[in-house]
Task: inverse folding
């Protein structure tokens, strides 16, 4: 079945450091891939997405590239801010007709210190 | 920006009692979803709903669970007889279209969740 594996957290970085959160997936066909972010006390917000191989999703300085050959969708940001402290979830959606569910990774908690 | 709203934010219920979690999806959305997250674990899909019927459900969504769209705005999740292991954060989501694959994709918008505590 479909599954998503994220790097274990928590991750603690200093402000302006480079961020990478690894995400790999197992799926049949060509899933769509997503990163969601959950700020403290809030719900899940879509951060970025990619729907086919080699697509790059980007938003708020974050980027992730859909790599079919390595089945990966790693999240990167060149310079993190304190306000980026949150839990980040990698997710996929199977491309089969009639399937709407998102499959999530366990989440990676990021803390950015000044 | 329109958003998905969930009530209550925290629900405490005795084991064996029925509980109803409420959601108001974004008004022009057609697909509705429930997910849950047990503390420290993954966000898990429960059910999706379209055109007044369930379109997909997971193994978690057994006979104790039901969903309903009682009017034009609310979408509810009912747990008939709660168990301790139902304690979790429950998220409602909605989207304009559930179509996946290489077509136009509309993202799922999530509410802030209801924390359900079973005593």
Result:
């Amino acid at each position: 079945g479909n599954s998503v594996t994220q790097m274990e957290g928590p991750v603690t970085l200093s402000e302006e450091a480079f961020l990478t959160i690894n995400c790999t997936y197992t799926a049949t066909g060509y899933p769509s891939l997503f990163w969601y972010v959950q700020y403290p006390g809030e719900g899940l917000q879509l951060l970025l997405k990619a729907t086919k191989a080699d697509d790059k999703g980007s938003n708020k300085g974050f980027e992730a590239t859909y790599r079919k050959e390595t089945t990966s969708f790693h999240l990167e940001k060149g310079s993190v801010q304190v306000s980026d402290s949150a839990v980040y979830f990698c997710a996929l959606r199977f491309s089969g007709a009639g399937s709407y569910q998102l499959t999530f990774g366990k989440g990676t908690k990021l803390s950015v210190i000044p | 920006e329109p958003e998905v709203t969930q009530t209550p934010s925290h629900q405490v219920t005795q084991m064996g009692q029925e509980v109803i979690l409420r959601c108001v999806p974004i008004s022009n959305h057609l697909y509705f979803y429930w997910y849950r997250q047990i503390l420290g674990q993954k966000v898990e899909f429960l059910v999706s709903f379209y055109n007044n019927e369930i379109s997909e459900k997971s193994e978690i969504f057994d006979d104790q669970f039901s969903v309903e769209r009682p009017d034009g705005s609310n979408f509810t999740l009912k747990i008939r007889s709660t168990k301790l292991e139902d304690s979790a954060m429950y998220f409602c989501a909605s989207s304009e279209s559930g179509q996946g694959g290489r077509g136009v994709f509309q993202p799922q918008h999530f509410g802030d969740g209801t924390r359900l505590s079973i005593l």
